[in-house]
Amino acid sequence: MNPEIEAHLRSLVSFPSPPGVATRIIELARDPDIEMGKVAKALSLDSALSTKILRIANSPLYAQRRKSESLRQALVVLGLNATLTLALSFTLVKSLRAGKSHGVNHPLYWRRALLAATSARALADALHHSMAEEIFLAALLQDIGILALGQALPDLYRGTEEVQRDHGALAELERKRLQTDHAEVGGWLMRTWNLPERLYLAIARSHRIDLSVTDDMNQIFERCVAMSGPVADLFLMNSEERPFAEAAQTAERCLGLDKMAFGQVLATVGSMIPETEAIFESETLAAKHPELIIEQAREVLMLRSLNALRDINASRTMADDSSGRALELEEEMRRDSLTGVYNRAHLDQVLLREFENSTRHCWPLSIVFADLDHFKNVNDGYGHPAGDRILQTAACILRNNTRESDVIARYGGEEFVVVLPATDAETARSVCGRIVTAFENTEHVIGPDRAKVTISIGCATHGGGTTFANADDFVKAADQALFAAKLRGRNCSVQFDAQMPTAASARSA
User: Fold this and answer.
1) At which of 300, 326, 351 does a domain end?
2) Rounded mean pLDDT, 424-429
3) Does 383 map to a domain?
């Protein structure tokens, strides 16, 4: 950092110092002859800190078969360096939260900090980096310069509420006013706290992403930290603003993670959020649901979806010339004339293609069979069947509760099928739950009356713990799950289980 800027900042106000416990942890970490007993004794002085260490040792992050009952057992699970790094994370967060805001949006700051730390940890794990905990800490502290500058210059962030929601714009504002930014200030501050060099350098360089291939573990350390901020922003942005594809391309160029691996990182972050929130006693996403964000990410990152977007653009271009009408007619032939969703013939083609892609690329594929229950006798009050209108409403409900990359088709009669590319069993279960809830909350106005139509759903997933020899067996499994759903009493969904009783077909139920 520019010496003049550093001197100016020092002259304005004294910057925060690490609390006593944190100072002791830093000292222990720098001791090459550190002993487990000394670490356990230091941590045991803070009961809340000890509890957090125990909790994280028993968390899914470390997937231990045997529960750690004591701090010493937790130290064995985590290792000395990881324990000290995590303890420092907990201690600094507790201390820094107590500071005054001075125009800093503290709830947003901490949501982003915790999401970035969680993201950095997921990236480090995906790359099998041995310093995942230190990467977590560096990402957690990468924006500490904002808190420091907020104290040093109380007017700096006043009136910048909207700018703070755009991290790049915030850093640009700082550089315009100070000829430096919070990343550089944060790295300088962490150096004064005697943190290890790799930590303060990663913080100082957290706004730089080098788009080149590297095997250097120090560079990968820094890149995980730098990439963690943009990943965190994916969870904080509004749905229509999330640049999933651009983030995936950056992750591939700077870290070597392909789109599927990056999608799995996002899924890991989503699964880690509840534990991170509990350990740090903070809400990271407020009212947003991480599972919906993950579903949107999968939709955007799926190669099939990206190809579909290209096809759509090509179709739009061709629609402007004489061949456009031919494409429109071809699309019409794929559609069910009553409901507007795809027909059975097109569904069969899609199923074969997606099953082959799933098997070849080892990504999951889910299929949903949805059957409307006993509505054929519903009439419009004048003795005329109302089934067509109910089928049209059902198709609309399915469209509103699935994603753009999902393929909805009418299978026959009152039965629909939804193909969910790159979708694991847990995500498919969430989609099925949304569909059932939507049907439960829908009343069909039929003439002078209102009618409720129930739905039964069976779902199967190819990949993960269950695989199928061919697409026909895959379809039969979903049909079998549908039969089980009907036996359970309608308006419910059932996931295929190889242990469930076999049935010839659900359509006779």
Assistant:
1) 300
2) 87
3) yes
CA angle, 473 then 477 then 479, to 5°? 115
Residue 509 in domain? no
Residue 120 shares a structural domain with residue 263: yes
Q: Report how far apart the first and last C-alpha atoms of the chain are (Å, whole number).
A: 73
Looking at residues 6-32, what average pLDDT do you find?
67
Confidence of residue 346 (pLDDT cuts 50, 70, 90): very high
The CA distance from 435 to 493, in Å, is: 9
- Whether 349 and 483 share a structural domain: yes
Tokens of residue 178, six digits = 């100070």
Q: Are residues 379 and 480 in the same domain?
A: yes
In a shared domain, residues 330 and 400: no
Domain check: are 307 and 289 in the same one?
no
- By DSSP bridging, strand 449-451 and strand 407-412 are unpaired
CA distances from 290 to 117, 127, 384 (A): 16, 23, 45
Query: Would you state the pLDDT for residue 85?
Result: 81
Of 443 and 253, the structure prediction assigns the larger pLDDT to: 253
CB 418 within 8 A of CB 368: yes
The pLDDT of residue 469: 93
Count of domains forming the chain: 3
Looking at the fold, whether 291 and 426 belong to one and the same domain comes out as: no
| Residues with Cβ within 8 Å of residue 66, at least 6 apart in sequence | none
Sheet containing 492-495, strands listed edge to edge, beginning at the edge strand earlier in sequence: 407-412, 415-421, 365-373, 454-462, 492-495
Q: Do 311 and 387 fall into the same domain? A: no
In tens, the pLDDT along 117-153 reads 999 999 999 998 988 888 998 999 899 889 888 877 8
Between strands 454-462 and 492-495, the pairing is parallel
Residue 437 resides in a domain: yes
pTM: 0.59
CATH at residue 253: 1.10.3210.10
CATH number at 347 reads 3.30.70.270
* 251: nearest Cα among 211, 303, 194, 206: 211
User: Could you tell me the residue range of the domain that residue 362 belongs to?
Assistant: 335-495
Residues 188-214 have a mean pLDDT of 89
Strand pairing of 415-421 and 407-412?
A: antiparallel
Claim to verify: residue 251 and residue 119 sit in the same structural domain? yes
Average pLDDT of the residues in 289-315: 58
The string over 154-188, giving b where at least 16 C-beta atoms fall within 10 Å of a residue's C-beta and e elsewhere, is bebbeebeebbbebeebbebbeeebebbbbbbbbb
From 159-173, 243-257, 276-290, 396-410, the region with the lowest mean pLDDT: 276-290
pLDDT band for position 419 (50/70/90)?
A: very high
